Amino acid sequence: METHGFQTRNQYGSLFFCPSCGNLLDALSEQKVIVCNQCGDSQSAQLFESFEVVTKSAENAFNSPLKLKRMLVQQTKKRETAATIKEKCPKCGAPEMSFHTMQLRSADEGQTIFYNCVKCGYKFSVNS
After folding, report:
1. For a designed S-S bond to 82, which of 20, 93, 98, 119 qualifies (C-beta 3.0 to 4.6 A apart)?
2. Domains of the chain by start residue, with CATH
3. C-alpha distances out from residue 106 to 3, 8, 103, 109, 115, Å
4. Binding-site residues from annotation for Zn(2+)
């Protein structure tokens, strides 16, 4: 179905927003003018012809059993290769924890150390 030289958003599932107030516009129809229900601004339907609709989804938005299993394997491998230290877990008392560091604050301050218990998975951080 084509309307004014472009295919309607219903076919693609894309959303269009009012350029004036950002309100979600009603589905494009046979009308040549689209009126925003929020601010009353009217736009020519042709304005939306050249819009390129790009959609992105989070990596875990559509989980499948295979994807979940792969993610679990990757997390396990990451834990196995992480640096470890003889630090007692405050939750379960395990004698060893894995850790990594990141510079989250300004350069003249210390790093943040992230600890992860290899036994129970408890996580905490310390600013050094």
Report:
1. 98
2. 7-48 (no CATH), 81-127 (2.20.25.10)
3. 54, 49, 8, 6, 21
4. 18, 21, 36, 39, 89, 92, 117, 120
